């Protein structure tokens, strides 16, 4: 992602002065071992958690003699908001968009190269104020090439009447919120005005009888069973569905796609020893060798510059030129996430009532 992307997402500080909670900035260098004995983490479940634990969490826990305490699920942001004065969790799994929003409200700590030195080894495209990616995740359209013979080139192909009853759309708490807003932007809408997106996605559900896809595993099941022929989906997960028997391929729409960077930002206002332990752990997620191991499991490209340059032969397909990465995230760079999250409650209410409920 280009500098404009970081300016649009990771470098915006407009809300910080009015919403910050007075988080203390710890200037001491990263220590070798913290006094805390556990890392409390808000995280999704499924295979992503299994991969994360296998590569990052379990080896760190064994090496340091600490424990990871998980709360699994989606949309943990309300809990972080509710606990802002007395947070009970150390880190939260997020993309750059949601971490930008929480960070602007003083609910996350900024990443510091002094305390998390491997940050300097990550390509600048994947470094944000409150999140530094361990992988990035190209996202476009998954297409059943056995059932769909015509070329798929655009997001608007999701509305093709030939695919009636076979279209999938991600659940709002999963990827649906960001996919919806990308489409709304494409259709001329804004963070403040989602009329165009509501009307068009409602049409997808009414005229084309779209199905809600709830998560990665649910989507893969529907793709393998061929109950869904076309849907927004991750590139690597499309490959995994193909390996499981689904006749699918990944398409990057001509209008541009989406690309998230993922990691576990640090929740603000935790005890100093808990913060130190979390920072020590996060430093390992930016290590080249560990990122390569994680990329091998997830099929998502790494962000560490050394890892990006030294992909082994069996992972060469993960090598993506920077100009292609820039195109992948095009729709996100057109979205003002800080403004967007100001309207979150109204947006989800309208989506559930007018799109899903048909109101």
Which percent band covers the strand fraction?
5-15%
Instruction: State the separation between the terminal residues, measured CA to CA.
Output: 38 Å
Q: Do you know the CATH architecture of the largest domain? A: 3-Layer(aba) Sandwich
N-to-C order of helices and strands: HHEHEHEEHEEHHEHEHEEHHHHHHH
Helical percentage? 40-55%
Rg from Cα: 20 Å
Tell me how many strands there are. 10
DSSP helix count?
16
Question: CATH superfamily name of the largest domain?
Answer: Periplasmic binding protein-like II
Unreliable stretches (pLDDT < 50, length at least 5) are 1-34
Q: At the first level of CATH, what is the class of the largest domain?
A: Alpha Beta
The average pLDDT is: 87
Short description:
With about 350 residues, the chain is of the alpha/beta class. It has helices spanning about 5-10, 15-20, 45-65, 75-80, 95-105, 170-185, 195-205, 215-225, 235-245, 270-285, 290-300, 305-310, 320-330, 330-335, 335-340, 345-355; strands spanning about 40-45, 65-70, 90, 95, 135-145, 170, 210-215, 230-235, 250, 260-265. It has 16 helices and ten strands.
Can you describe this structure?
This protein folds into two domains: 3-134 and 262-317, Periplasmic binding protein-like II (D-Maltodextrin-Binding Protein, domain 2, 3-Layer(aba) Sandwich), CATH 3.40.190; 136-258 and 337-356, Periplasmic binding protein-like II (D-Maltodextrin-Binding Protein, domain 2), CATH 3.40.190.10. The protein has helices at 3-9, 16-19, 46-64, 77-82, 96-104, 172-186, 195-206, 216-224, 235-243, 272-285, 288-298, 305-309, 322-328, 330-333, 337-342, 344-356; strands at residues 38-43, 67-72, 91-92, 94-95, 135-144, 168-170, 211-213, 230-234, 248-251, 258-263. Strand 1 (38-43), helix 3 (46-64) and strand 2 form a beta-alpha-beta unit. The strands form three sheets. Strands 4, 5, 8, 9 and 10 form a five-stranded antiparallel β-sheet that branches. Strands 2-1-3 form a three-stranded parallel β-sheet. Strands 6-7 form a two-stranded parallel ribbon. It has 16 helices and ten strands. Helix 3 packs antiparallel against helix 11 (288-298), helix 6 crosses helix 7 (195-206) and helix 7 (195-206) runs parallel beside helix 16 (344-356). Helices cover 42% and strands 13% of the residues.
